[in-house]
Each structure stands twice: as C-alpha cells, then as structure tokens.
Design a protein that fits this description.
The protein has about 120 residues and is mainly β. It has no helices and eleven strands.
Length: about 120
C-alpha cells in the first residue's frame, strides 16, 4: 500500500490546516501509521502516531493543537493542525510501519506558517 500526503499550504500563525494521507489500498490492517515533519536543515521528526491497539500519541510540541485520525472506509489518515506556529513549518510526510520498520518515504506536503 502506497501513501500520499496532501493538504499543505501557506497559512498565517494561529490558522488551521488539515492534512490528508491517502492510501492506494486498504489501511484497515495497518496498525501503526504516523505523521512526520522535516524542517529545513533539521532531521525528520515524529509528529503524531497511531500505535498498536488504536491508541494515538502526539509529540509534546504539538499536543493540544494537532489531532491524528483515520477513516478506514476512505483509506485515509488525517492530521488536523490548529493554532499553527511558525515553528510548525516543514515538509510533512505520512508513513506506515510493517514488521517494526517504517516503509520507504513518499513525497511529502509543504506546510509554511508565516508570523
């Protein structure tokens, strides 16, 4: 199953965006999925995660502002981002884990937050 992130854009600080991660096939059986981001000159970091059992977790830097969700019927995972800050700027990627390893990275979507 291939994943493709979309929905990025240019927004002002305090505004919201919703990112989508559309799968080429069913995501019903994919237990671990996540959103990552990479700011210019920095390493890729985990932003939000669906863990085994359906629990979710978010990085401390986005807790209370970002929400991860999924719609298995639409084969899509989402990242609702509220109260965006300039430090949220980066390329956002979605990915899936299989056998304890993250799959190869697809093309991300650029999010730019202006102050």
């Amino acid at each position: 199953v291939q994943l493709q992130a979309s929905g990025g854009g240019l927004v002002q600080a305090g505004e919201s965006l919703r990112l989508s991660c559309k799968a080429s096939g069913s995501i019903f059986s994919i237990a671990v999925m996540g959103w990552f981001r990479q700011a210019s000159g920095k390493q890729r970091e985990l932003v939000a995660l669906f863990a085994v059992g359906g629990t979710t977790n978010c990085a401390d830097s986005v807790k209370g502002r970002f929400t991860i969700s999924r719609d298995n019927a639409k084969n899509t995972m989402y990242l609702q981002m509220n109260s965006l800050k300039p430090e949220d700027t980066g390329v956002y990627y979605c990915n899936q884990m299989a056998s304890g390893v993250w799959a190869s990275w697809g093309r991300g979507t650029q999010v730019t937050v202006s102050s």
